[in-house]
Amino acid sequence: MKFITTIEELQQSIKKHKKSQQSIGFVPTMGFLHEGHLKLLSVARQQNDILILSIFVNPLQFGENEDFDSYPRNMERDARLAEEAGADYIFAPSVSEMYENEPSVTVRVEKRTNVLCGKSRIGHFDGVATVLTKLFNLVQPDRAYFGMKDAQQAAVVSGLISDFHFPIELVPVETVREDDGLAKSSRNVYLNDSERMQAPHLYKALQAGKEMILKGEKSPASIIKFVSEYISEHTDGIIDYAEIYTYPELEELRVRKGRGILAIAVKFTKARLIDNITFELK
Amino acid sequence: MKFITTIEELQQSIKKHKKSQQSIGFVPTMGFLHEGHLKLLSVARQQNDILILSIFVNPLQFGENEDFDSYPRNMERDARLAEEAGADYIFAPSVSEMYENEPSVTVRVEKRTNVLCGKSRIGHFDGVATVLTKLFNLVQPDRAYFGMKDAQQAAVVSGLISDFHFPIELVPVETVREDDGLAKSSRNVYLNDSERMQAPHLYKALQAGKEMILKGEKSPASIIKFVSEYISEHTDGIIDYAEIYTYPELEELRVRKGRGILAIAVKFTKARLIDNITFELK
To answer: In DSSP terms, which residues pair with B105 in a beta bridge?
Structure first.
């Protein structure tokens, strides 16, 4: 595995692989790898000749009061895990390498942002889309891998790729869960014992909500009410949001056709957990 | 020459040429080709295996009071000229082909826009950068050609390519001029006989200004005053702007080092002409 920090070195490697017509799989991350990332790497490893992982804590996607400086970093451990996962390259540029000057162009995400987590993170997805546009052009992957845990991010990336016609296949990867159904997250360690016992009910609530939808319940309000009450009854968590949309457009679900998503965010004492479930209406 | 109107057909052709590792030259235009465009095609023809011309009047780069509907179009003539110039493809999509839905992402140009012509065309370069991002990803050219007549556009594209790391070489092409020095423009026909006689003085003023700069004149204000007076004395035109900047950053020229540009816009009775000259300070 090669550890690359400069754009020039990356471009040289990519050129070589493109010339020999090798397929490139790309897993963009902010590092501090967990099992979700490893799942992305494992799926990408199977589908491509070359596997590239990027590790870049992107200042552009952090708000003023967010935790850019304190965002956890552990490059040594990440490098070991990436090598074990079969990555051919880690691209880990510095902030000044990625943003040599103040950006003269940025990407503005016009849709899919004003709901779910995006509602309270103004500019977050503009930062995500801008850095991904840069990374996509640098890495020129055939396939890019995103976890469905952050379904809104996957939806925004899907819009970015299709609207800008990137010649890239977006591969969404299912959320990795504990045996009891709790979505894996680095934030789960902040749950106290009692909260950890309750937390699997988040996914149970989503599953029950999905079942209602598939059984014919037409009113989003009724489903949201049911899911919210289920969570309130079974956990001490406070619901931040519970919403239903079309997927990946994240628009109001008006007709019983196509794909949809039911997504929640729940605040516990020291951790805010998110989870979601998608469904197909026929 | 192949005339293509759908994204799918374009992508299939590009895939084929990429696979056989042929270099692609790209000339993006809004059609109604004139000698400036033909120069771009001629330079591109020499430097690439495959030559692609796009013709797309991009609604996103027209302001509300601008002339999108009345913008001149003549596809038959354009196709003939492109074929004569050796183009392998014309890509001429409809508006609905390029913007199937309301865009979910756009490019915002943060720099180089608030000067020269951009100052009075709010959002114009956002539209240009957005459509070029789409076209660059569709055509995947090795080289893209832009005329220096619209130096600000070339500067914005240079920022777009370098900031977003498009693996594309921007090839700026010198302004094509009449024998008397007047920059060729489809708007020159709107000059009356007397104005047409005066118009070569625009370029003479720029040349004289450049000479002042190279001879050591340090004050932008003095150079602009000289150029403006020269134009007022020799023409009936009214100066819209005369400005000096670094190039391609289009920032205030503070030090006598690097590249710069002297650019003007002058209003005649029925035509507003623009021209510019670049210089190198050592």
So the answer is: A109
Q: Could you read off the pLDDT of A112-132 as tens digits, one per residue?
A: 999 998 888 889 999 999 999
Task: Tell me whether strands A272-281 and A258-267 are parallel, antiparallel or unpaired.
Answer: antiparallel
3 state SS of B160: helix
Residues of B in contact with A21 (CB under 8 A): 19
Q: For residue B261, which of B146, B153, B165 has the smallest C-alpha distance?
A: B153
- Residues of B at the A interface, defined by Cβ within 8 angstroms: 7, 11, 19, 21, 102-112, 129, 133-134, 137-138, 140, 159-160, 163-167
> Scanning every residue of chain A, which has its alpha carbon at the shortest distance from the alpha carbon of B126?
A105
Sheet containing B50-55: give its strands across.
Answer: B2-4, B89-91, B50-55, B24-29, B143-147, B169-173
Domains and CATH numbers, chain B: 2-173 (3.40.50.620), 186-281 (3.30.1300.10)
Residue type, B95: V
The Cα B87–Cα B90 span in angstroms is 7
Contact between residue A161 and residue A145 where contact means Cβ atoms under 8 Å apart: no
pLDDT tens readout for residues B195-206 = 999 999 999 999
ipTM for the complex shown = 0.90
